[in-house]
Amino acid sequence: MPHEHAFPALWIVKLGDTLPALHYTHGDFEHWIAQGLQTGQANPPIRVVDPREGQTLPELGQCAGIVVTGSHAMVTDRAPWSEATADWLAQAVAIEVPVLGICYGHQLLAHALGGEVANHPQGLEVGVARVHTTPAAAHDPLLGHLPASFAAPVAHRQSVRRLPAGAVALAHNAFEGHHAFRVGACAWGVQFHPEFGPDASAAYVDHLAADLRAQGSDPIHLRQAVTPTPHAASLLARFATLVADRERTPQPDPVSA
Known about the structure:
Layout: E1 9-13, H1 20-26, H2 29-37, E2 46-49, E3 63-68, H3 80-94, E4 99-102, H4 104-112, E5 116-119, E6 125-133, E7 149-156, E8 158-162, E9 168-172, E10 180-183, E11 187-190, H5 198-207, H6 209-214, H7 219-224, H8 230-248
Parallel strand pairs: 1-2, 1-3, 3-4, 4-11
Antiparallel strand pairs: 5-8, 6-7, 6-9, 9-10, 10-11
Helix pairs in contact: 3-4
């Protein structure tokens, strides 16, 4: 069935649900992302689609931009809804629809474009971590405003072990070599969670405390280290602004350019 919305919007592709208790008190991934997208002046029209529920991904001509959420699923499970979304994302990148993949979305974007995703050999990274930008990030349209080092919420067990061909690495830390990358002109993946507030970060530390202890991490210390992360959060409003700017500016045909 064709999608009922026939005009370009900023689409949030919902690929997962947060913890039930957190959802009850704070909403879900798509709510946090939408709120972040609308904290700037762009205030784009936002639509949500959940391919896990059999909802049809929109025609790319209806997409001013795309944000792909995190998930408790694993990219390596190759679920049919995940693989179909990966194929759709590859098409979006090919015609330069702006894309922002978050955590699972970051990994799925890399997978869609020929990168490699796998379990991280050191296990979980959860809480708030220090992330460092690469020299290439200084001139990046999305990450270029960030300081050389900033705090970012993290909650992941898998990671991008190999970037797609032609991808530009934009951020990393001692644990995670690929915390952010860009492919082409306007497709980004971020392993960290710009949409998480301190309550979400703390809840994930609590939820994963047993696993963290099993790998030798201290969940009490990680919980005490949870702080606001305004630099990471700023990426959502900046992405919305980039999408709005591209909508106002005619873009060259990526096929003929």
